[in-house]
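=== RUN LOG ===
request id: a7f3
mode: sequence -> structure
chains: 1
length: 81
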Amino acid sequence: MNHLSAALVDLGLRGQWQDVARHAHAIQGMAGNLGLTRLQALSQSLDEACRTGAEAEMHRLIGSFDTVIRDACAVLEKVLQ
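=== RESULT ===
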């Protein structure tokens, strides 16, 4: 698990959903700037789930971050080669 995914899981386990939403919002903007649409959409969904209190959905979305971030990093590596 990458550092960012681990941090989101930790915050979620501690019930710090406002912090999760803040990080998700920041990731959403960064991903949009880089054209990482899958990561952007996932971050937007997590941000919205946190703001509406949909806890089961928040946990499900956090569980998806590791794979999506790994895929985004692979895309960036190919672009930078």
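=== NOTES ===
The mean pLDDT is 93.
The chain is about 90% helix and 0% strand.
=== END ===
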